[in-house]
Write a structure and sequence with these properties.
The structure is a homodimer.
Chain A: H1 12-22, E1 31-32, H2 35-41, E2 44-49, H3 59-69, H4 72-77, E3 79-82, H5 86-98, E4 102-107, H6 112-120, E5 124-128, H7 132-146, E6 149-150, H8 157-173, E7 179-183, H9 188-200, E8 205-211, H10 216-223, H11 245-254, E9 255-261, H12 263-277, H13 287-294, H14 296-299, E10 303-308
Parallel strand pairs in A: 2-10, 3-4, 3-6, 4-5, 7-8, 7-10, 8-9
Antiparallel strand pairs in A: 1-2
């Protein structure tokens, strides 16, 4: 990585470098298929199972790239982020593997299980109130005090280059894909996918899938500029955050379309995947299958890669139980 | 296969032949690992995920071997079995792939989801009352009427040779295993495991794991003869059936030990696997991990293969929800 400023746009060389760097700390996750889902959709689907990834989600790719790319001097001071989700776990895991300090600012209302997991990996939690203003104030204080390197959950070239290693592997594992579909929240995974595929397989179309209840990416895509929602309400809690300048660059340049699914369609696709593929995945992973099911004509007869992004779910609160 | 009588003991050649025969109809299932579970147990664990297998369980290996080993004349008449579980689904799947008739005798009280799945694969269901006498009477009538080939769920050399292909793959996928642990009900999977490993890797110890509430295999193993329980009550519903002569032959000859786990230990191990490995597996798959956790000294520092046997579970009735 040549430059760590936010506006540096990562290149394919950064992706290859990231892959070499993080290989010892991540799984090369398997690709699963389901005849049942193929018949149901009329497409040939391949599922890259990042729910089996270290720390339970693809986010560990970007976090590891950031952590292991630091100079020894910088690493010693440590890293910090704000996140109540998989990025918090992933950064804690990566920092733990390197043996450097990591501080995560989390809302005091974050699930206990997530807090326990961060601490389990050796992370320090600083709590804030569940509001943007409190989070920003507390986080600024943490960084000012510690001098820690801020690893943004997605709007960071190191993180995007790390996430891009997923489609690099995927393209090696499955030949002749016509399309890839991944969920979009802040856009880190989609940006990484665009970065890799535009360089090595530009014929593969990239589709982003998101909840209709948090369709800021779809509206941004149609409007031609970033639209950020204030507090979208969706079961796909990993997909509530808005695009930022770096991820917007990739979305507007390389994404074929942004598709949306309702809450009911998301829950149905999630349940169908558990039932038929026997994998535990988060609600945030379900929009790709949900949108493939409702846009069959788009994918019929095609070889379609689907990225299952994570598996960190509360087994006591499954959506089909809460109804 | 040289002889189809029940007392023919399948050989390693039968296993190799079975593997060639069934390869087009089964998945070579992946092997997953979990650093967390390694740390927790002090062993190096490898999980062979037969829950990702066609029809959702390893049973499809034996069923496919029986179905595709039939002569065209015999196949035309069809196959039949009695089962309310994974063998019913697997035999229906295999017969469907060959395009031959399959009749399954199921208790009328069997879960609707299982009945639907059998029909979905093209199977015909004949219902019986939920008692052994009714099942046997109805099944005898079905066979007498149709002349269908009876494929027993486990006490059949073709089925055992088929299940044996699982450890054949496993041994190729993971080098230097010290032990393999699999659940034991009727003993089909354990017999197949013994058959393969005693021929190609006799240094690998084979452990069978079962519910304490259905510990007939453990008691048989200690007594030196088959002990059958009448109606054991356990959440591991695939493990209620007793050993029979053919499976007993392998258990008494090659198994190192039969270990047991309580219902609470089984549910805890099941939940832990879902939570940490992000896979959906049946309660019947959990005794191996449960027994490894309670016999740590036996497995510490060892490379241990665990067979995750199936993933057909009712998502509306998870054991940690029912409490």
């Amino acid at each position: 990585m040549k430059d760590l400023s936010e506006m540096y746009i990562p290149t394919y060389d950064d992706v290859l470098e990231a892959h070499e760097r993080i290989k010892p700390y991540i799984h090369r996750t398997p690709v699963l298929t389901s005849s049942y889902l193929n018949e149901l959709t009329g497409a040939e689907l391949f599922f890259k199972c990042e729910n089996f990834q270290k720390a339970g989600a693809f986010k560990v790719r970007g976090a590891s790239n950031a952590v292991f790319g630091l100079s020894d001097e910088k690493a010693q001071i440590g890293v910090a982020t704000h996140s109540s989700g998989n990025h918090a776990l992933s950064l804690s895991y990566a920092a733990g593997r390197r043996g450097i300090p990591v501080t995560v600012v989390m809302p005091r209302t974050a699930p206990q299980a997530k807090k326990d997991a961060v601490r389990g990996y050796g992370g320090t939690i600083v709590e804030c109130e569940p509001s943007t203003s409190s989070r920003e104030a507390v986080f600024a204080e943490v960084v000012a005090r510690s001098g820690a390197d801020f690893v943004h959950p997605y709007n960071d070239p190191r993180v995007i280059a790390g996430q891009a290693t997923c489609s690099l592997e995927f393209n090696e594992q499955v030949e002749g894909l016509d399309a890839m579909v991944a969920p979009i929240g802040g856009g880190g995974m989609i940006s990484g996918t665009c970065l890799t595929l535009s360089n090595i397989a530009p014929q593969i179309k990239v589709y982003a899938a998101e909840p209709l209840n948090a369709d800021d990416a779809a509206r941004s895509f149609r409007a031609g500029h970033i639209i950020a929602d204030d507090a979208p309400d969706t079961i796909a809690d990993g997909l509530k955050v808005p695009l930022k300048d770096l991820t917007w660059h990739f979305v507007k340049t390389h994404v074929t379309d942004v598709l949306t699914a309702t809450e009911e369609e998301i829950v149905a696709a999630m349940r169908l995947t558990w039932q038929r593929m026997k994998i535990v995945m988060e609600p945030s992973c379900a929009p790709p299958l949900a949108t493939i099911l409702k846009n069959k004509e788009l994918f019929r007869g095609k070889r379609v890669g689907v990225i299952i992004t994570g598996g960190n779910v509360d087994l006591d609160k499954l959506p089909w139980m809460q109804r």
